Amino acid sequence: MNNTTFCENCRNDVNFSIKKKNTIRSFKNEEIEFEETFATCNNCENEVFVADLHDCNLFSLYDSYRLKNGILAIEDIRNIPIEAEYSTV
Ligand SMILES: [Zn+2]
User: Fold this and answer.
1) CATH number of the domain residue 69 falls in
2) Which one has a higher pLDDT value, 84 or 54?
3) Is the dihedral of CA 72, 52, 2, 18 positive or negative?
4) Ligand 1 geometric centre to CA of 87 (Å)
5) Is the pLDDT assigned to residue 86 strictly greater than 60?
6) Domain range for 82
7) How many angstroms is it from 4 CA to the middle of ligand 1?
8) How far is the CA of 2 from the centre of ligand 1 (A)?
9) Parallel, antiparallel, or unpaired for β 47-48 and 30-41?
10) Which protein residues have their CB within 5 A of the ion that is ligand 1?
11) pLDDT: is 14 or 28 the higher one?
């Protein structure tokens, strides 16, 4: 990851710090709580946009949405033993 990003407040490329906070976002008409990763400017403490973190937060939001709605993540489906699919009724 690039360790500098543009800060609108400083109007310059700045170093930033990674932080986490619990956030509630509206997603598919539901309030979803998830752990948001965000970055702050080391100069002025203003929150700055980092594209990689944006993607990371989307995955985090989807995961929380799936957990809340009991939808398995693709990785979880792969982890179900194959025998389960062939068990006799
Ligand atoms: Zn700044």
Assistant:
1) 3.10.20
2) 54
3) negative
4) 59
5) no
6) 4-86
7) 11
8) 16
9) antiparallel
10) 7, 9-10, 41, 43-44, 46
11) 14
Q: How far is the CA of 7 from the centre of ligand 1 (A)?
A: 5
Number of structural domains found in the chain: 1
Torsion of CA 30, 33, 39, 44, to 10 degrees: 90
CA distances from 23 to 5, 32, 42, 76 (A): 22, 8, 22, 24
The pair of three-digit structure tokens given for residue 18, joined into one six-digit string = 């990674």
Tell me the HSE value of 51 on the side-chain side, using a 13 A CA sphere: 5
Query: Quick one: which of 59, 85, 83 has its CA closest to 73?
Result: 59
Tally the C-alpha atoms within 13 A of residue 11's C-alpha that lie toward its C-beta.
Answer: 0
Q: Residue 85: pLDDT above 80?
A: no
Q: Would you state the pLDDT for residue 89?
A: 52
84 pLDDT exceeds 80? no
d(CA 59, CA 65): 10
